[in-house]
## 1
Amino acid sequence: MVHRVAVIGAGASGLVATKCCLDEGLEPTCFERSEDLGGLWCFSDNADCRRVSVYRSIISNTSKEMSCFSDFPCPEDFPNFLPHSLLVEYFRMYARHFQLLRYIRFKATVISVRKRPDFATSGQWEVVTDTEGIQESHVFDAVMVCTGNFQHPHLPLASFPGIETRFRGQYFHSQEYKDADAFRGKRVLVVGTGNTGCDIAVEMSHVAAKVFLSARSSTWVFSRVANHGFPWDMVSTTRFNHFLEWLLPSAIMKRIKFGKMNSWFNHEIYGLASAKSSNFHFIINESLPFRMLSGTIVLKSNVKEFTETSAIFEDGTTEENIDVVVFATGYVFSFSFLEESVRNTIKNNGTLYKCIFPPQLERPTLAFIGLVKLTGSVMVGAEIQARWVTGVFAGVYKLPPTSKMMAEVLKKQLPVKRTGLWGGLGLG
């Protein structure tokens, strides 16, 4: 019987996991390696610290109405889309309201999570933590990993010949970016057209001499402000829209998607996306089209190689006198504190049952919260996951046999995927 639960991380997922443990009568201990809660949303202007945090100007991509926890609405006087400071304040209010702070151990870094020798029967884990140089070993009946997937930057320098051997300018991963002040008058190349890459390109374009934005795939852009001024997710995330997506053939849904995107501006004219492309993703950015129209951001193809001062692109063009390269190339799925036998079975969230449970374990006492990609805010999905997981730990729910979980995981790994109209647009 599960009683003591280790919760790793005190961000959005860790807080709701701790609260759900209490709801089920479990005894949680939440380990947070920083001195404050909020996870990556807790801004730090120290780019050298080990903890990943957001950049200074970030604002949530999903509205407070569609992102808040089900039993604790955001204050009415908060704006619809929250800057990081207000989102962290909301987390603090949530923690105080449900008296979660007494269960959180700050400045406690989890070093290792290993199965106990009798794991096959007990399901217990040995968790080793480091608190300001003092190591402690703990035994828990279950572990909830709530650190998210933004811990280890993906920096594929080998894919960009010359960046390490010839290029004389500055280059870094977007994790290190905090604000645009240091790039005034510079010629900047941003590699990657995800939410982060486009946000950074837009912000830098206000102070840089020129910003080049390198895209490898089609990117569809839309605004937080939908029809009649309502938040986009309140308009689009409805049962009717989901029913249409389930009902209509994929070809028709694809036409509807592109029609919605192009009703704002024609993406093909801007060079951002083509309706014929099979590889595309959606981002939110109100300012990108105008910055491109004003010439402060210039869209480029994928980078082929770097010279001492320039970037050569796959379309044969070259941009000279590049001062800074920002790689907005995402993050690697990695949980270094897990023992190797467990870590090697977890390649991505697709290798987890329901994106939560490693199906190969003898006992279902390890769960990952917040790794799911869904419509809208990850916070909402994390709460549903945490409710189910703590119910499993408490014996209220039972998982299927390992063979059935493995079969479902393998089935979902097949390359048959249907992209949702608004999928993958969370708070990050």
## 2
Amino acid sequence: MEELAREAGITVRTLRFYRERKLIHPPRREGRLAWYDDSHLARLRTVSALLERGHTLNGIAELADALDHGRDVAELIGLDAPTEEEPVRLTPEELAARFEGEVTAENLAAALDLGYLGTDGDEIVHISRRLLDVSSALVREGIPLAEVLAAAKQVREHADALAELFRNLVLRHAPEEDLQRLRPLARSVVEAELSLALDRHLRKRDSGLS
């Protein structure tokens, strides 16, 4: 315990307090000996980084609990199914830096519920680099992460409906194995229609201003 506290730059008393708050995993026991490893040190450094960014211990405890009970990464990103999305591995510190001040327990829970995040050891896995880049860009533009995630939930519902529409269209005229081959066509239709819809809304806004 003394060695771990020294490496983490905290006091033994603080380390005991963190253990009581379940901010780190229990040590591996061998008789009366308690063994800590690099995963404990990484978690302590994460706690320190989040405290420096203004997070409370209660919030960090909820964050740690959510991470510890995250879904299996293989299930999360669909490794056993075809996908065009590239997952991204992040440390908790890197995730906090991406969304500085916005990585709250509530936002983490919402991201886990959407299936955006999972855990693999001490790493966090985001299901899609494109979604990660877009959401962090929107937050940098001043849009709260909570609102980005709420909008994402609505987008997910519409996207599921569009995917079902395309699937039914293909299956009425082609075998199911053609779905994967034809998915770029569905994506092109959705991207074009969204672009046209944005054009219509921008024209409506401009005509209102004039």
## 3
Amino acid sequence: MTTIRRCALAAGPFAVAAAVYAGLFRANRDRLPGRMATHFALDGTADGFMSRDAALWSGIGLTIGVGVLFTVLAAVATKKTGARLTAALGAGTAVLLGCPLIATVVADADAGVHDPAGARLPVWLPAVLLLLVCAATGALIRRLAKAAPRPSTAPPTASLPLVEGEVAAWSRTVVTRALLVPAAAVTLGGLLTAVSGPWQVGLPLFVLGLACAPIAAVRVTVDRRGLTVASTMLPRPRLAVPLDAIADAGSARIDAMGDFGGWGYRILPHRRGVVLRSGEALSVRTAKGREYVVTVDDATTAAALLNGLVNRRAEERSQEC
């Protein structure tokens, strides 16, 4: 798949969403009030308003802006798996952005030019739409991920010999600007928008930025308990793989976009990843066949220690029997 085709596949759904929204807006412009209802309470009544022009351009700007983000992600994807995942996630996101915007135009057009407060948007409509889109996108991602060849796992690293009773641990902190800078920018932008503009737009951005910040810096620890990956900012999120569940460990080099479709905590069939950058990563395989990948420096030492701990645990059990 060429770069142009990847970008077109990622940008297409957002372009369609923006075009449909703008076309419907223009077709119903004479029926829309000068001050449109743009936010609705749980009972379907309008409780947030915006000028007609602001509603049009903010909707188009949001859709195109997110579309540009997914297009850039698709452009830097060097493997088919990452391109497919980006396209699937982008399509679902375009629908989630476009449908509520279109539904708002329809609700305002039905209310008429003189009564924006009379617009109604039943709460069940976006809720059902969200469930359907999430289910369809999840199924599409799963299908596309299976369509691509499963990446080969890293060979086990030679184990570090440990004698009985010897205590050993390894720990490294990983910080990524790929998540930290965007998270800070989104958080600040959301805060400023919530204070000086429509809070309905600013609050979700603020929450999204805060949610991304904890995963931008993590501490990776290998000790007698197994593998632990924890945020340096908050107790959660936290990933723990018990030593008893580990079969072996190795070191590998990964491509964040190509292998996992992006950064952060990634979920693929039989594979999980805490991916903060491309490059060296610790690969841990469980007895049930699942692989956990964590991008971290000096992964070879961490893998050797894990294998040593696993081998010593196996020897202790054989002696007990």
